[in-house]
Design goal:
This protein is mainly β and 240 residues long. The chain is built from four helices and eleven strands, in the order βαββββαββααββββ. Helices cover 11% and strands 32% of the residues. α1 packs antiparallel against α3.
Length: 240
């Protein structure tokens, strides 16, 4: 039995872990989950911070899964290998993505301003400070986009970078949402010596659920990693 502890640094909401970071930290425990494999992670509860969480390992193989449980045995998250064909969000060039950041709504108002990924209150070198603003692809698709230069790179951080840009493709100021499910594939880990473009797109709204996608591209517009998400509408006053 192995364990996962989510340091407070990787928070999303004030009392729980960032969904993308948590999902990536669990996904890498699956065979192939660190690279090339497509993994789906379902978040069952807000991931608690600074608490050792048990990882229940099933046998390797096609049915392999990893279940993260809290100190009273409740399932927090579940990771499984997926056969989904992910459809990346189209890229834009790095200068257009940098220009889009000025329109990032989270700079004006943010439900979770200390979020590890997109929180404007995080210092450079501490949070990722990915600020996706409205943009348009060369073929006229409406997306959100920003830039990111990693100061460190691993599987959970790459999943985290693909998390919030999907959320900001919806109107998070009008209707706050948290991550419910994330399916991702990493083709290569990002380098700390390169500037990346992160793009997000809303795909559908189904009641309280929003379906989105996000992709990470290198300076040469080569795909680095991609993800699809389901977001769940919440009332931030009662979310814990």
């Amino acid at each position: 039995m192995s364990h996962l502890l989510i340091p407070r640094r990787f928070q999303g909401p004030p009392s729980s872990g960032n969904g993308g970071w948590t999902a990536g930290a669990l996904a890498q425990h699956l065979p192939g989950g660190a690279r090339d494999a497509t993994v789906t992670v379902r978040l069952r509860l807000p991931p608690p911070l600074e608490v050792p969480l048990e990882i229940d390992d099933s046998p390797a193989g096609a049915g392999a899964r990893r279940v993260l449980t809290d100190d009273v045995g409740r399932p927090v998250a579940e990771a499984v290998l997926s056969e989904d064909e992910l459809i990346p969000v189209p890229p834009i060039d790095v200068l257009a993505a940098a220009d889009a950041e000025a329109g990032y709504p989270g700079l004006r108002q943010h439900v979770f301003p200390e979020c590890f990924v997109c929180g404007p209150d995080r210092r450079p070198g501490d949070g990722l400070r990915i600020f996706p603003g409205p943009a348009t692809t060369p073929r006229g698709r409406e997306i959100v986009a920003g830039t990111w230069t990693p100061y460190e790179s691993d599987v959970p951080i790459t999943w985290a970078a693909l998390d919030c840009p999907g959320g900001w493709a919806t109107d998070l100021l009008e209707q706050p949402r948290v991550l419910g499910t994330m399916t991702a594939r990493i083709d290569r880990l990002p380098s700390t010596r390169e500037r990346y473009v992160v793009v997000g797109e809303q795909r559908a709204i189904e009641g309280r659920k929003a379906l989105t996608a996000a992709s990470l591209y290198g300076e040469d517009s080569g795909l680095v990693a991609t993800a699809e998400h389901t977001w769940i509408a919440i009332d931030p006053r009662t979310f814990d």
